[in-house]
Structure to design on (116 residues):
């Protein structure tokens, strides 16, 4: 009966060896920075998609606020992606949309000047 586990024999694992995982509380400054950069990326993507200048500038300001509160141990990937998305949203909102599709590849020939 040593090989079989029956409901009456209980759990075959060793409950004395199980240790609970101690959950540590995250510091407010670290989670706050992640929230700044996450919010900055979301607002920058909205500014990029909507091509709205106010939303894009808001993303730049939120990114700058997160960058100003940056500590030495912060993840560099969050910072660089937030800055890149903010700048990309800002540039996309100021660049006007030109011709797309085949019109961009093959522009129409210009008419010859009359009387020349």
């Amino acid at each position: 009966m040593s090989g079989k586990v029956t409901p009456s024999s209980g759990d075959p694992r060793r409950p004395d060896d199980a240790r609970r995982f101690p959950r540590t509380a995250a510091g407010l400054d670290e989670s706050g920075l992640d929230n700044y950069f996450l919010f900055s990326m979301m607002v920058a993507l909205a500014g990029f998609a909507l091509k709205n200048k106010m939303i894009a500038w808001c993303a730049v300001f939120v990114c700058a606020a997160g960058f100003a509160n940056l500590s030495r141990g912060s993840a560099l990937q969050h910072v660089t992606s937030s800055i890149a998305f903010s700048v990309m949203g800002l540039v996309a909102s100021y660049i006007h949309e030109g011709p797309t599709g085949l019109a961009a590849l093959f522009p129409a020939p210009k008419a010859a000047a009359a009387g020349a």
